[in-house]
Every structure is written in C-alpha cells, then in structure tokens.
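Notes on consecutive records. When two proteins share a document, each keeps its own sequence and its own token line. Never mix them. Below: protein one.
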Amino acid sequence: MSRKKLDELGVSAFCESMAMMIQAGVATDEAISLLQSERELGSGVLEQGLQVMKTQVDQGYGLAAAMKESGIFPDYALQMTEAGESSGRLEDTLFRLAAYYKDQKTIAEKLHNAITYPAAMLTLIIAVLAVLLVLVLPAFRDVYNNLTGSLAASSYSYVRWAYGFCWFALILMLLLAVGLIVGLLMWKNGKRDAVERFLSRNRTCSEILQNMGMFRFTSALSTFLASGDMQDDAVLKSLPMTACKPVEEKLKRCIRRMEEGHSIAQAAYDEELFEPIYGRMLLAGERSGNMENVLNRLTGLLEENCGNLVERLIGTIDPLLSGVLMVTVGLSLLSVMLPLIGMMNAIG
C-alpha cells in the first residue's frame, strides 16, 4: 500500500473523472481501466494507486474499498465515497468531493502566499540590515575616524545611533523570522492547537481560522447530507473536519441542542454558529426543503470570505514590513550623511 497521498488537485481530478464516467454509464472497473490508459501507467502516486484499485474492483470490491486499499486518498474522501455508495448517490458525491478538494487547494494556496510574502520580506530586511552593519556603516565610521581622530568624541556620533537602530531592527526581524519558523514546525509536528491559540490573539487571524473551519464544516455537511445521511449523523461526521477549536465548541453546543429535538438550522441559529444573515439563510433553506443548495451557497460565501480575509492580512503586512525597511534604511543613511553634510558646509 502506498504511503504517499494524492494532493488536493489530484483527488479533485480523480473524483471528477470518475463522476463523469459514472454519469455516462461507465462501470467502475471500466472507468478505472480508462483512467489507467490515460495515465499510461507510470510510477507516480496515482498510477500506482490505480493498479491496486483495478485489482480490487476485479475481485468484486466497491470503489470505496478499492480507494482505501490503494492508500493514496485522504480519510474524508474515503468516508464520503463509502457513504455515496451505500446511499446510491455515488455520482453526486464524487462531484461534490471534486469541488471540495478544489476549493481546499485554492484556500491552501492563498494561505501559502500569506506566509511566503512576509517570509520573503523578512529575509530581504535582514539581508539589507546585515549589509548596512557589515559594509556601509563601518566604511563611514572609518572615514570619520580618520578625519576627526575619534568618532566617539566627535560631532559625528550620529553614526552610533545608526548602529544602535540597525542592531535593534535586525534583532527584532530575526526574532520574527525565528518565530515564523518555529510556528511552521509546530504546525507540521502536531502542535497545531498551540499555534492556533497564539494566532487567535490577532483578530484577522482568528477570523481566518474560524472561517476556514466553517468552510470545511459546511462543505462536509452538505456532502454527507447529499449522500443520504440523517442530520444528526451528518453533523457528527462533519465535526472532525473543522480542525478549529472555537468552531468545534460551537458545534458541540449545536449537537446538544439537536439532541433536545432541534434541527441543525435552528440549533446553528440559536448558538450563532453562522453570522445572523447566514443563519437566517439556513433556516429559510430548511423550511423550504432546499437546505442542500443553501449549504452549497454558504460554502461558496465562506470560501470567498476566507480569501478576502487572507488578502486583507497581506494588505496589512505589506505596508508594515515595507515601512520598516524604508524607515530603517532611510534613518541609517541619514545618520551617516549628516556629518558629511556638516563637513561640506564647513568647507564651503
């Protein structure tokens, strides 16, 4: 069994291809064979997985069991495919999975850009400060020492302030860079909760995390409901998909209300799981028997809101880091140029 998983786009492409072929009346084993012929059986993750899947379906196993045996699909995709098979809505479930993983990839790329840009700016600022401290400021200091005999006792002590400011800025940027690296390592090594607690102190970061959690929940809930699950089961299965503690706490309160006899729409509205306008949309959708379409609409709105929040965060970080760079360089150069200006005025 392959240990390496398909990425989001790979899962999305597979699910969409299978859904289209099933929609066209192609049997599962034939659909997998067609995908094999299209991939020309190389040594990639999907190619190896398709070989295992073909063997499994030839032995009489279903698509979900074959996907599980291949070991290349995430648990969520396996759960949803199994639910779609058992409910007889496999085609619709696969289309929803394709859209879900495509949306996940889009949000992941936006978050990656939100981290990459500050990291690049921090690297640039650190490099510029290092050049100032190692090459530029020492050159001016040596010149002024030769002209005045002692920089510390001269009127050119501005240079000392430039040194102090550059060192302060460099240490601050290094601390930020180390914090970013440590945060990424903690995120990847299973300490995501600690990172989320720290990020939640910032309002924009907290909104991004909660919106992402709600996006994952509504997408999963919509797919489970479309697969034929009852509301209670669908909510319970969707709960682990949120990966966000504040959202999970709200959902647990909603589940307790549902155990008292309330519907998911009413429980979500009472516990303010969504913003009021979204909560009313869900209530209206439930009362009109159009809840799945409303959930799909909410999923799209939450994805769009996540993107807007990420762009707003980048828009805040961009001028802040650019300002630090310009102020640091400007003040440093001004500090070393003031003595030169004074000398030129004295000579002139």
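Protein two starts on the next line and is unrelated to protein one.
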Amino acid sequence: MSPTARHDRFIGLMSGTSMDGVDAALVEFHDRDFQVLHTLQCPYDNALHQDMGALISEPDRAGLAGYGDLHIRVARQFAAATRKLLEAAGASADSVAAIGSHGQTVLHSPRSAHPFSLQLGDPGTLAVLTGIKVVADFRNSDIALGGHGAPLAPAFHRWIAGHDDIDRAVINIGGIANITVLPARGEISGFDTGPGNTLLDAWCREHLHRPFDDGGAWASGGTVNQPLLTRMRSDPYFAQQGPKSTGTDYFNLQWIHRQIDAARQAHGNQPELKAQDIQATLAELTAVAITEGITGETSGTIPAAGISEARICGGGAHNSDLTERLRRLAPGCTFDTTDAWGVPPDWVEAVAFAWMAKERLCENPTNLPGVTGASGLISLGGLYLPAARPDRSG
C-alpha cells in the first residue's frame, strides 16, 4: 500500500527570502486534486529575524556556533508553527503523513568549487518535536547532479496548472522572483529572474523605516531613472543563460548602493537621486526582468513562448504597482493571481512543499532537469523520522 493510500494529509512549511516568518499549510491530496484545509503565518520575533539577517550578511562573524544555534532555533519555530496549525485545524499529528519543510535559506551557492545550499531549521529536531515524519533538504541532491537546486516549485506548477492548449506562466515574487513557463507543447522552463521584493523592501526600510512598500504606493509616485535602470540591468546576472538562480546574499541593500555609486560616477552632472525615484527604478527593474523572462526577449532568458496567461504568487501578488508595470511591459499577456487556479497566492509555496513531501514518500521525481540544469531526475528531499513511540499493544 502506498503512503498516500494510508494518509493523504501533508503539511508544507516555507520561509522565504523575506525572512518574515513561517508559512504553514495543511493540505489534503487526492489523485489529481487537493484541498487546502488550513493555513497560518507564524512571524519570527525580532531577535530571530535580526540574527538570521546578521548570519547572511556577516557569516564569518556569526561562525559555526552561531549557525548551529540558529539551526535549532528555527527548527523550534517551525515546530511551533506546526503545532499551532494542527490546533487551529482541529487535526492530530497522527493524521499527517509527513511535513515538507523548506527551512530558511541562508546561503545558496550552486556554482562554487564545491556546490551547496544551506537552510536553517534542523529537520531531525523538527521531526522529534512534532512526532511527524519530515522531508527536508530539497536542494542539495539536485545540486549533486549538477543542477542549481532552484527553482523547486515548477514540478508542482505543472501539476496544478499545466494545460494542453494554453501557454502559461507562473510568477513567484518573493524576496527573489522566479518564473515557470508551462508551454502547451514542449519542455517546461524556469529560473530566478532576479530581485523580487528584496530590493524594494530593503530600500523602504532604509528610507521610510517600514518593512515594505504597501501595494507599491511609494514606488508608484516616483519616476524611473533611466540611467540608473540601465546601470542595474548591466549586472552580469541578468545576461546569464538559464538555468540560473540567485539569492539575497547577492541582491541586497549593498548591491543597491553599489549601483547608485556607479551611476553617479558615470553621470557626474546628474542631479541628486531622490529616494522615491530609486524605489520606482527598483520596481521597474523587477518588472523588466520578469517580463523578459516570460517573453524570452533577451539572450539571458528562455526561448520565446506565446504566453497568454500569467499568474502571480508570493508577497508580490499584493503589489498593485508591480502588477501594473508587468501589464504595461507585456500587454499581450493577462496577469492575475493564482487564486484563478485554486491556490491563494500567499500559500503556493507552502502547498508545493506539502506536495513534494507526498511525492518523496512515493519516491516520485520532483526536480525538472530542464529547469535546474541537473543531469537527471531525482526525488528531492531527505527523510527524517520522529522518535519511536512506546508499543502499547501488550
């Protein structure tokens, strides 16, 4: 009997590049359908958020002890989110087949001399604290096959949104933006287009002392600075041929300041740049990179596809200014959220990791070599078991 014949409920846990907290989803799967039973968001406290940010920005200063401490603290946060989710849903741990836990990425280095990807949130601790099997460490087996270990969700996107007659795209705008192109015929493609919310959030925090630009209101009131945009678009990442992936260790506040300094040096007679105009320029950069990705207009992107439907998920789905920029840049495509496909945009990734846990227990491949660049198919994730329960049968 397959695992899903005994249990069809799985939990997905996701913490993205914005590092604002744990997204948790309890999902019931059927053969070709699913139901999201309950969701919740468990915010990180300020100390944990700041310590993770410090680890990413200054890894040598945090050291191994700092990494180990955070590895367990994040696992405990994930376990707390799981308990709260089950309590809110009126469900027991025994009713859940497994947890799919992405963890919190702190360093993604798929093209180093010895490629790897590091996520906080020790899965062994999570399994013990929840009493539920855990599937985790989804990226490194794909990396071992020569892939980027990212993006991970395209196989799930194909499962929920693939269509025989319509070319579609899924746009996930978290801290980093990534796309999945689902052609009616041909191979699925996808990659990280570059910054999503991370640069917008960082600039907003520095100048407005707010965590994000709500709805893109601040950016919408600014004017795109074309010389600065041109300078930003000249970053080598945007010209790279996919598959490719990136993270907040690359695109961050320091990256913004380097681009501004370089633009000022190149255009010495330019007036002082206004903070709001820089925010508008960052929004335009995100939108341009995404639309070039789904239309294949530059050498660094996938071959052109006649995408007629694009659906947005992640925090960027709530940024109306960003959505309007996408519509202006790609007028032949309709942009909406993934609500149209039955998955609320805030929960697509959490549901995806629940699905990946299900597929891992069934030993089904969940990477797409055409997306990640891996040399072959593999069922992603390692399996971690909870402590054995006492045998009360006697």
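For the record: DSSP finds 15 helices and twelve strands in the chain.
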